[in-house]
Design goal:
Largest sheet: 4 strands, mixed
Helix content: 10-25%
Shape: globular
Distance between the termini: 65 Å
Strand content: 15-25%
Structural class: alpha/beta
C-alpha cells in the first residue's frame, strides 16, 4: 500500500484497451494493486459511477473538453459530501477553476481539490450542474461551490508560442562532431579554412 493507495482502477469503454492493459499488467512483477474495468462513463447507472467514483480519493481523467463537460454533472453528484483530488490532463473541467495548473511534457495538468475546506477562497459559480438536478439528486441542496476551493499559487503560464520551446535556440555544439574521427579540433580547423 505505497503512498496510502488501497486500490487503483482504470476505466474505459473500449474492451480492447482494457484487455491490452490487463495483458501488460500480467507482465509486471510484483503485481501492483491495479485493476481495469470496462464501463461506460456516459451512463450514470454504470458501475463506475455507482461503485468506484464515490469511493475515490484521487481521480485522473484524460478527456477532451466535450467529454469533461458531459461527465461533469455525474461527477459532481457522485462526489457530494466527499473529499477527492481531481486531475484533468490536457483540458480544464468546464465551469471549474483549477487550484493549480502545471505543464508536463507540453500538456497542461489541472488540479482540483474537491471538498477540502482547508483551501481558502471558495469558488462561487452560478453555473453548477448540481443546481439544475432534480431535488432528489441534490439531496442536501449542496452544490459544487460548497466543495470546491481555490488556491491561486499556480505556476502555470500559457505557452506564448505553441510548438516552440526555448531550448530550440540553444547551440549544443553538435557541429563539433563533424570530423570523421570525432576530433573537435580538426573540425574547427576545417571550418576556418
Amino acid at each position: 500500500m505505497e503512498y496510502g493507495v488501497g486500490e487503483s482502477i482504470g476505466i474505459d469503454v473500449d474492451e480492447g484497451i482494457i484487455q491490452r492493459a490487463t495483458d501488460r499488467l500480467q507482465r509486471i512483477h510484483p503485481q501492483p494493486n491495479i485493476k481495469f474495468i470496462v464501463s461506460d462513463l456516459m451512463d450514470a447507472g454504470s458501475p463506475a459511477w455507482t461503485e468506484h467514483v464515490p469511493k475515490a480519493t484521487i481521480l485522473t481523467m484524460y478527456f477532451a473538453k466535450e467529454g469533461l463537460q458531459k461527465i461533469r454533472p455525474m461527477l459532481e453528484q457522485a462526489l457530494i459530501g466527499k473529499q477527492c483530488k481531481i486531475y484533468t490532463c490536457g483540458y480544464p473541467m468546464p465551469g471549474w477553476e483549477s487550484q493549480i495548473v502545471e505543464t508536463v511534457l507540453d500538456m497542461p495538468i489541472h488540479f482540483y481539490d474537491w471538498g477540502n475546506a482547508d483551501v481558502e477562497d471558495a469558488i462561487l459559480r452560478a453555473d453548477s450542474f448540481v443546481d439544475e438536478l432534480p431535488p432528489r439528486m441534490s439531496s442536501a441542496g449542496n452544490t459544487m461551490d460548497q466543495y470546491m476551493r481555490k488556491n491561486t499559487k499556480s505556476t502555470f503560464q500559457p505557452d506564448p508560442l505553441p510548438g516552440f520551446h526555448p531550448d530550440d535556440l540553444v547551440d549544443y555544439g553538435w557541429d563539433d562532431f563533424d570530423s570523421p574521427d570525432g576530433d573537435p579540433e580538426e573540425s574547427k580547423q576545417r571550418k576556418r579554412t
